[in-house]
Amino acid sequence: MFVKARLLKSAVLGLLIQSAYAQVTLNVEETEVYAVPFNQENTVERRIDTLDVNKLSKYAYLLRANHMVMPSYGPKTSKDVKKRIKDWQNYITEAAETNLLPEELIRAVIEVESGAVVTAVSQCGAQGLMQLMPKTQNELGVKDPFDPNENISAGTRYLAQLLNMYDGDLSLALAAYNAGMGNVNKYGGIPPFEETQNFVKKVTAIYHRLQQENAN
After folding, report:
1. Are 120 and 62 in contact (CB under 8 A)?
2. C-alpha gyration radius of the chain
3. Where would I find the H helices in the chain?
4. CB under 8 Å, gap of 24 or more: what pairs does 177-180 form?
């Protein structure tokens, strides 16, 4: 009975996500994206760029570089990004099964958030593949945000919580993932922030594209 209940919950959540997807306008420009080094002329970025990631996390070697990188945003993966995502496929599959979410959705969030770069760090302090903020990491019990398994597991769990909170509305869940639940509740929907609105559109577009690719 427990297994059947989990499968039923997964099916219902999948239908809710599909319904939410249908409400999103997909007018995203198809462009190649890459994780790029920080802009050395920016004070904040320059400070982060001096960090020795090899001392910060034992997983830093996976980046094959000695500095942090700025997360990239975009609806279309480069071959390099696709290759990196494949490196974490086992973790994505496990997280998807545990949290009853589609693998394509998790991949889409990773692609938009970090370009699948393990040691990506944003200017506001979000870290790792799924760009978890320190406060969120603490709430989810994350010890090493640059551990790909731990980051994907925690990020997926957080996304599942948001989907349940917003009754399966993918747009609202993604908006909360990017801008925080407080802003979503304050504005009664997707906040009027360009970054958040683009995030929702891009993740949804990639999610839908990956589903179509896997269906063929």
Report:
1. no
2. 17
3. 2-21, 43-49, 53-56, 79-87, 89-99, 103-114, 134-140, 148-165, 170-179, 181-187, 194-215
4. 177/109
The answer to which of 96-100, 123-127, 206-210 has the lowest mean pLDDT is 123-127
Q: Name every residue whose Cβ is closer than 8 Å to that of residue 176 and which is 6 or more positions away in sequence.
A: 162, 165, 166, 183, 184
Which stretch of DSSP H or E encloses residue 37?
strand 36-37
10 Å CB burial of residue 47 (0-12, 13-18, 19+) is: exposed
Residues known to be catalytic: 113
Reported pTM: 0.70
User: Which residue is listed with tokens 């009754």?
Assistant: 167
> H helices then E strands: how many in the chain?
11, 2
Provide the residue count of the chain.
Answer: 216
Cα separations in angstroms, 51 against 56, 61, 201? 8, 14, 32
Residue 92 corresponds to which amino acid?
I
Whether residue 66 contacts residue 52, with contact meaning beta carbons closer than 8 Å, is answered with yes
Q: Is 27 helix (H, G, I), strand (E, B) or coil?
A: coil
Q: What is the dihedral of CA 191, 196, 197, 199, to 10 degrees?
A: -150
Write out pLDDT tens, residues 81-114.
787 888 899 999 999 999 999 999 999 999 889 8
Instruction: Point out which residues pair with 32 in neighbouring strands.
Output: 76
